[in-house]
Design brief:
With about 250 residues, the protein is an alpha+beta fold. It has four helices and twelve strands; from the N terminus they run H-E-H-E-E-E-E-H-E-H-E-E-E-E-E-E. Helix 1 packs antiparallel against helix 4. This is TATA-box binding.
């Protein structure tokens, strides 16, 4: 009987591991659909970008602790330790930044410490970690980095984190209104996404949408959003720029 229990326990553990791997693979495949939808838009790809923002809480961190945290995330994305860390002090903030640029990628790791004071006395210091990675070739590799960074955040038992994926491409010339809407609708169809809101000011055409294929989302006015598409015309370059992000774009265009 004891041997049977041991066998059942081992089988149970193995099934948990298998199910966990299936979930991870399914999430990876669903994220890859964003890349596939972008590639199928027949745009000239110029950049893929990953950003993860982590709330590390108000733990006490020494200078050495902060440097170790930066090194931890640098190791996570296999960034060589030939970077320099710059420190910038503000009124209530201290920002440590490690940045490395190359031909095919640019990486930035920031650790921002924000002091909160009550009646002029230091109450606590909250720490935030931001890792940004821009890749100019082999955009499929961005998902591997996303998975690695999210796993690293989970292992640290952080308060919370938010991941952003963004892809940038370009079309030659200026697309007509009909062409812009068709490009957006094609992407939404591939992602099985439904429009939540549309903003069109002539030069900038932006669509916010939601799909059940992507696990992350934000809520705006009780509406879930995890797909953001924008098209804008660059007159100087004579190109129509396409941006596809999940959950939303966080930069000006």
């Amino acid at each position: 009987m004891k041997k049977t229990r041991v066998v059942l326990y081992v089988v149970g553990v193995l099934w948990v591991a298998v199910i966990a791997q299936i979930i991870v693979n399914r999430m990876f495949i669903n994220d890859k659909r964003i890349i596939d939808a972008f590639m199928d838009s027949n745009t000239r790809v110029s950049e893929s970008k990953l950003s993860i923002s982590i709330d590390y809480g108000d733990k006490f961190l020494s200078q050495s602790d902060k440097e170790d945290l930066i090194a931890y995330f640098a190791d996570t994305i296999q960034l060589k330790k030939d970077y320099e860390i710059k420190t910038e002090k503000g009124n209530n903030t201290v920002t440590m930044t490690a940045k490395k640029s190359g031909k095919n990628a640019t990486t930035t790791i920031e650790l921002i410490s924000v002091e909160q004071k009550i009646d002029g006395e230091l109450s606590k210091t909250n720490h935030f970690i931001i890792v940004e990675l821009s890749i100019y070739e082999k955009i499929n590799s961005i998902l591997e980095y996303k998975n690695s960074l999210e796993n690293a955040a989970k292992q640290m038992d952080v308060k919370e984190y938010q991941t952003l994926l963004k892809f940038t491409g370009a079309y030659d010339g200026k697309l007509s209104e009909v062409e812009k809407k068709q490009r957006v609708n094609d992407i939404l169809e591939r992602l099985q996404a439904k429009k939540v809101n549309t903003v069109d000011d002539g030069n900038l055409y932006t669509v916010y949408a939601y799909t059940g294929l992507v696990k992350d989302y934000i809520k705006v006015s009780d509406c879930r959003i995890n797909i953001n598409i924008a098209l804008t015309y660059d007159e100087e370059a004579d190109k129509t720029m396409l941006y596809l992000a999940s959950p939303v774009l966080n930069e000006d265009y």
